[in-house]
């Protein structure tokens, strides 16, 4: 058994290859079972109750694994009726395959990726009414929330039409609009939230979070003048009256076209500020003002008018976004201010994965103006992966005909396998047509956003591999061998057995075939043409270039390639780097900057790469992200911070089994943890952060040498700064457009703050090198006090101004959970974001508004929830096990009630 520890842009893997031990208890069974028939299959799919029950995140042992994390779970299958049938199978998705299972009457087999099969073993005696058939499993991971428990278990049998088991289907709660997983049997007990014997997150109780989220007083003038992201310089003008925009604005433009700012004006219009002949004069002039920074602007609002001077069109655009940010929806006015502002980083990005679970064109078109409102300027679209290819490519229709659809076809002849709980015919699939992509590019341009396409290669490429195999088979059936082989991506004689980090055995392009590079060139050529047609030149192409695991070893074509002395690579371990080098040259030859994930780029030879390269560093902070950044900076490359423990917005907001998201890099990522990040000094974050289970870690940024005296790490080159920072939404467990918004907002605002604004309290980088841990005090008490004060300003602006604007523009943001503390006979409640109404109830009583600490006087269960800023949408309710029953004297008379 080989133990491979690795980390992924979507999950932490402790991958055990290739074992699955199945322990069966042999029983003598007399059975009068019959092979299942179609009516029985249909009935069983409708009535079978499936429960995935966590037994422990801390089992005494983890059979078949040496992983640091392990959980023990049980699948329970219960029929309310006697069903004496055999010959059935259940196909279901599970993120981490078990290393051992145990059952008296069932067995499990791993197929590919996250697909597993459960079926009766020879001892199976049939379903008896109310009696559960169970299968225990030990999994080399932890199970902390329902997000990883994928839906749509498929009941099937040879020769019969399959059907999804009804109890494994999710549904949207009509009140909260959140996804409900009836098959998930987790709880909030400590055995769920503790994943390790040294788990430091046990201290993050609701009581502790209540203290952490206490609201401090912030002057109303600061909230009124607040802008997110924070301008570099802003001063209020004392003695000046606020300016009402209720009658609209009258625009006067100099040095720019209307189209260059139309999207910012559209936002103002949505917020109630339209262009009117009698409106407040707003003069916008583009003229170099001495700043070398793109996006620089100056804004002055006083004496009943607004003047904007910008260095370029983007500066004018962002100045108008700041005008919208200043607006109070309650008064429709802005304060008198003077602003001088410019971005911290040129690259301020958001990565959205539409490959795993597709997100519609309409979702992207809604997202773009909201990104622009907070001055983000790069949309990195992850358009292809193992589970889907989501962009039409002229001349290669198979990519979307087969690769954009999942269904129950394990041979991938007409669609892809139903990975990630995709059901039989997956309604969450699809792709962007040429017209769709053109529309997205035009909308991005209007919002001053560059679209950066990514079609991950050479790993994460199963959709492309299977689509081109389909193309090969179609042309071979027509006796056209040349066309069949033109874009083939796999060596059909390759017998290599491997398992990717996501447990695929067939997801990697063969990098030894010229047809692979013909395919890459074809795809990139078409994408360049799409951008040109939209008037938005392709500036950066992200090739992926990560996570190839053990492929090509037994490929005859690769063996011949490596043996050819004319080539300059002669080992399988060098092939990933070789592929990236060749693809980088293809990209650069088209005038496009090449980009990729740091792990694949690290395998390249600098002299074989273009001079202009962007490395997206996704190593976590405790695992030495600062060392990767330094190594790639010294290669002369641009660096985009993609540190998962800060920037991955598919991780849970909080420690709660009902939250969704992967947690391999961070157990909780909320607005505050992002706000506290110091992106210009990665090692210094060790003073305030822990590892994935909250343990302190140290970050050594001093020069370091190995045993032979070779220099293996040194600090950043003098004066080097990263090019930018990017948030990430991976979509393995994000199945709906509005839930993608839920995962992004409001914490994307904190990421935008880090990308635009340099906080005064951040610890400057030490180019001579420094060690940091939680005992060092470079982030001094004074700096921490300043940070916490600025956090209060930021979060109160979010709660009192920005969330209502998100409501107005239709963004489905997360309404935070309520945290509470019992003290001296009273229950105190709050949320991480102030300014939101809180409600409480007992049992099925009507919801009442929390206005002050609640007096308690006997045992009961209390339920708490917060409402959206506009009061129309409740968040998830939380149960509070109070030591007393609340005395119902705190009802707000006449307050509206939400049932």
The CATH homology group name of the domain at 347-648 and 684-691 and 717-726: Glycosidases
Q: Percent helix among the residues?
A: 10-25%
Please mark out the parts with pLDDT under 50 across 5 or more consecutive residues, or reply none. 1-30, 888-899
What's the helix count? 21
Most strands sheet: 8 strands, parallel, barrel
CATH class of the domain at 347-648 and 684-691 and 717-726 equals Alpha Beta
The CATH topology name of the domain at 347-648 and 684-691 and 717-726 reads: TIM Barrel
Compact description:
Belongs to the glycosyl hydrolase 20 family. By secondary structure, the chain is an alpha/beta fold.
Structural key phrases:
Chitobiase, domain 2, single chain, TIM Barrel, 8-stranded parallel barrel, disordered C terminus, 45 strands, Immunoglobulin-like, alpha/beta, 6-stranded mixed β-sheet, 899 residues
What is this structure's SSE topology?
Layout: E1 2-7, E2 12-17, E3 21-24, E4 34-35, H1 38-47, E5 49-56, E6 71-78, E7 85-86, E8 88-93, E9 100-103, E10 106-112, E11 115-120, E12 132-139, E13 154-157, E14 163-164, E15 171-172, E16 179-180, E17 184-185, H2 190-193, H3 206-212, H4 220-224, E18 233-236, E19 243-244, E20 249-254, H5 262-270, E21 280-286, E22 297-302, E23 305-310, H6 313-326, E24 333-334, E25 337-341, E26 347-353, H7 361-373, E27 378-385, E28 388-389, H8 398-401, H9 434-446, E29 450-457, H10 462-477, H11 481-486, H12 514-533, E30 540-544, H13 556-563, H14 575-589, E31 593-597, H15 598-601, E32 613-617, H16 625-633, E33 638-641, H17 644-647, H18 671-675, E34 699-700, E35 704-705, E36 711-713, E37 724-729, H19 737-744, H20 747-756, E38 771-772, H21 781-808, E39 819-823, E40 826-830, E41 838-842, E42 848-850, E43 854-855, E44 860-866, E45 878-882
Parallel strand pairs: 3-9, 4-7, 5-17, 20-21, 21-23, 26-27, 26-37, 27-29, 29-30, 30-31, 31-32, 32-33, 33-37
Antiparallel strand pairs: 1-2, 5-6, 6-12, 8-11, 8-13, 9-12, 10-11, 13-14, 15-16, 18-25, 19-24, 22-23, 22-25, 27-28, 34-38, 35-36, 39-40, 40-43, 41-42, 41-44, 44-45
Helix pairs in contact: 5-6, 7-9, 12-14
């Amino acid at each position: 058994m080989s133990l491979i520890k690795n980390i992924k842009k979507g999950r932490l893997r402790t991958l055990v290859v290739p074992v699955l031990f199945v322990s069966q208890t042999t029983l003598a069974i007399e059975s009068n079972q019959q092979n299942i028939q179609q009516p029985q299959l249909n009935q069983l799919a409708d009535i079978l109750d499936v429960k995935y029950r966590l037994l422990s995140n801390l089992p005494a042992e983890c059979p078949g694994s040496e992983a640091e994390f392990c959980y023990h779970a049980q699948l329970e299958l219960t029929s309310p009726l006697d069903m004496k049938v055999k010959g059935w199978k259940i196909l279901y998705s599970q993120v981490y395959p078990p290393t051992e299972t145990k059952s008296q009457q069932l067995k499990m087999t791993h197929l590919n990726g996250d697909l597993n099969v459960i079926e009766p073993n020879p001892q199976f005696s049939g379903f008896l009414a109310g009696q559960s058939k169970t299968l225990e499993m030990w999994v080399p991971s932890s199970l902390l929330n329902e997000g990883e428990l994928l839906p749509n278990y498929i009941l099937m049998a040879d020769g019969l039409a399959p059907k999804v088991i009804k109890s494994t289907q999710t549904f949207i709660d009509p009140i909260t609009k959140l996804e409900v997983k009836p098959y998930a049997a987790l709880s909030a007990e400590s055995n769920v939230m503790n994943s390790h014997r040294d788990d430091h997150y046990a201290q993050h109780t609701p009581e502790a979070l209540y203290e952490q989220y206490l609201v401090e007083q912030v002057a109303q003038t600061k909230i009124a003048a607040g802008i997110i992201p924070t301008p570099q310089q802003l001063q209020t003008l004392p003695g000046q009256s606020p300016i009402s925009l209720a009658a609209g604005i009258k625009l006067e433009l100099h040095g720019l076209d209307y189209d260059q700012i139309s999207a910012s004006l559209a936002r103002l219009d949505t917020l109630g500020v339209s262009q009117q002949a009698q409106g407040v004069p707003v003069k916008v002039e583009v003229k170099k003002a001495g700043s070398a920074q793109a996006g620089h602007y100056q804004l002055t609002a006083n004496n009943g008018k607004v003047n904007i001077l910008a260095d370029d069109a983007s500066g004018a655009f962002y100045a108008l976004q700041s005008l919208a940010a200043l607006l109070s929806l309650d008064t429709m006015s802005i304060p008198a201010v003077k602003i001088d502002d410019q971005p911290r980083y040129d690259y301020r990005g958001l990565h959205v994965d539409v490959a795993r679970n597709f997100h519609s064109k309409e979702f992207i078109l809604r997202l773009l103006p909201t990104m622009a409102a907070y001055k983000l300027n790069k949309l990195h679209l992850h358009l292809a992966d193992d589970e889907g290819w989501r962009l039409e490519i002229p001349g290669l229709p198979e990519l979307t005909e087969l690769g954009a659809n999942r269904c129950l076809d394990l041979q991938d002849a007409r669609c892809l396998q139903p990975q990630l709980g995709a059901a039989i015919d997956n309604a969450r699939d699809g792709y962007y047509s040429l017209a769709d992509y053109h529309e997205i590019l035009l909308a991005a341009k209007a919002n001053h956003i560059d679209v950066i396409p990514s079609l991950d290669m050479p790993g994460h490429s199963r959709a492309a591999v299977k689509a081109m195999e389909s193309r090969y088979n179609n042309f071979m059936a027509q006796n056209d061998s040349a066309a069949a082989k033109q874009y083939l991506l796999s060596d059909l004689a390759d017998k290599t057995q491997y398992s990717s980090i996501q447990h695929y055995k067939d997801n990697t392009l063969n990098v030894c075939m010229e047809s692979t590079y013909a395919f890459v060139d074809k795809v990139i050529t078409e994408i360049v043409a799409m951008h040109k047609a939209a008037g938005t030149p392709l500036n950066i192409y992200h090739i992926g270039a990560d996570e190839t695991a053990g492929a090509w070893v037994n490929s005859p074509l690769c063996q011949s390639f490596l043996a050819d002395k004319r080539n300059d690579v002669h080992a399988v371990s060098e092939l990933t780097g070789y592929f990236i080098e060749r693809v980088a040259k293809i990209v650069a030859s088209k005038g496009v900057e090449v980009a990729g994930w740091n792990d694949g780029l690290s395998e390249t030879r600098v002299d074989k790469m273009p001079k202009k390269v962007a490395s997206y560093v996704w190593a976590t902070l405790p695992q030495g992200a600062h060392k990767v950044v330094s190594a790639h900076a010294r290669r002369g490359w641009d660096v985009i911070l993609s540190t998962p423990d800060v920037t991955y917005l598919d991780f849970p907001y909080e420690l709660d089994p009902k939250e969704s998201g992967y947690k391999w890099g961070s157990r909780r990522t909320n607005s505050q943890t992002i706000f506290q990040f110091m992106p210009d000094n990665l090692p210094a974050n060790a003073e305030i952060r822990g590892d994935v289970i909250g343990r302190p870690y140290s970050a050594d940024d001093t020069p370091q040498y190995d045993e032979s005296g070779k220099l293996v790490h040194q600090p950043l080159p003098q004066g080097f700064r990263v090019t930018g920072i990017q948030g990430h939404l991976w979509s393995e467990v994000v199945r709906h457009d509005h839930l993608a918004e839920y995962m992004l907002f409001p914490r994307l605002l904190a990421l935008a703050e880090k990308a635009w604004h340099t906080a005064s309290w951040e610890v400057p980088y030490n180019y001579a090198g420094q060690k940091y841990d939680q005992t060092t005090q470079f982030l001094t008490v004074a700096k921490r006090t300043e940070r916490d004060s600025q956090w209060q300003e930021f979060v109160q602006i979010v709660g009192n101004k920005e969330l209502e604007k998100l409501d107005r523009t239709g963004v489905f943001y997360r309404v935070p959970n309520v945290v509470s503390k019992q003290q001296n006979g009273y229950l105190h409640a709050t949320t991480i974001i102030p300014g939101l109404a809180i409600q409480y109830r007992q049992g099925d009583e009507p919801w009442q508004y929390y206005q002050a600490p609640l007096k308690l006087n006997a045992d009961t269960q209390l339920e708490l929830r917060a409402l959206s800023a506009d009061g129309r949408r409740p968040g998830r309710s939380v149960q509070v096990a109070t030591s007393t029953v609340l005395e119902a004297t705190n009802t707000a008379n006449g307050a509206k009630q939400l049932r």
